[in-house]
Amino acid sequence: MVRELITNTVADFKSHYAELKADQSLSRVFVLFMAGTDPDTGDSWCPDCRNAEPHIEAAVKGLGDDVAFLAVDVGDRPGWKSPDCPFRHLDEAKVTGVPTLFEIKSGRELNGDDCQDGAKVAAFFA
């Protein structure tokens, strides 16, 4: 079963990223940057993230023991929209929108509308 981690801080992201990147037992490592939960609705504040979620969850379920998946919650809408949002200034990833999905070792990336396309998501994880 895939190793799944979730974080919502830059410090934890950097720690997990370094650990997963260095782990030789992992054949692949995926990272998803997604919007946080709206406390009023209990759902993501980002409609693109809500639409992408079922496709990404289905694909992740099919991954093996030698794969890791790190989900990064970028926070609430005002925090994410700020040009000072720390997730916009990472050395490890150039995140300009959510959802953003990338694979560490290959550098491949899937963004926005493409994350909402089940076939593209499945192909990305294949």
Describe how the helices and strands are arranged:
Elements: E1 3-7, H1 10-22, E2 28-34, H2 47-61, E3 67-73, H3 77-81, E4 100-103, E5 109-111, H4 118-125
Parallel strand pairs: 1-3, 2-3
Antiparallel strand pairs: 2-4, 4-5
Helix pairs in contact: 2-4
Features:
Glutaredoxin; globular; 5 strands; Thioredoxin domain-containing protein 17; alpha/beta; TXNDC17-like; 4 helices; 126 residues; 21% strand; five-stranded mixed sheet
What does this molecule look like?
This is Thioredoxin domain-containing protein 17. Belongs to the thioredoxin family. Residues 19-125 form the Thioredoxin domain. By secondary structure, this protein is α/β, with parallel strands linked by helices. The protein has a single domain (3-125), classed as Glutaredoxin, CATH 3.40.30.10. It has helices spanning 10-22, 47-61, 77-81, 118-125; strands at residues 3-7, 28-34, 67-73, 100-103, 109-111. Strands 1-3-2-4-5 form a 5-stranded mixed beta sheet, with helices on both faces. A hairpin with a 5-residue loop joins strand 4 (100-103) and strand 5 (109-111). Helix 2 packs across helix 4.
| Content-based structural category | alpha/beta
| Topology, number of strands | 5
Q: What do we call the CATH topology?
A: Glutaredoxin
The CATH fourth-level homologous superfamily: Glutaredoxin
Instruction: Give the helix proportion (percent range).
Output: 25-40%
- Overall structural domain count: 1
Q: What's the Cα radius of gyration?
A: 14 Å
CATH architecture name: 3-Layer(aba) Sandwich
Distance between the termini: 15 Å
Q: Sum up the overall morphology in one term.
A: globular
Task: Give, in spatial order, the strands making up the sheet with the most strands.
Answer: 1-3-2-4-5
Largest sheet, if any? 5 strands, mixed
What's the CATH class, please?
Alpha Beta
Please trace the helix and strand order, writing H or E for each element.
EHEHEHEEH
Unreliable stretches covering 5 or more consecutive residues: none
Number of helices: 4
% residues in beta strands: 15-25%
The chain-level mean pLDDT equals: 96
Domain Thioredoxin: 19-125
InterPro entries: Thioredoxin-like_sf, TXNDC17-like, TXNDC17_dom
GO molecular function, one term: protein-disulfide reductase [NAD(P)H] activity
Family: Belongs to the thioredoxin family.
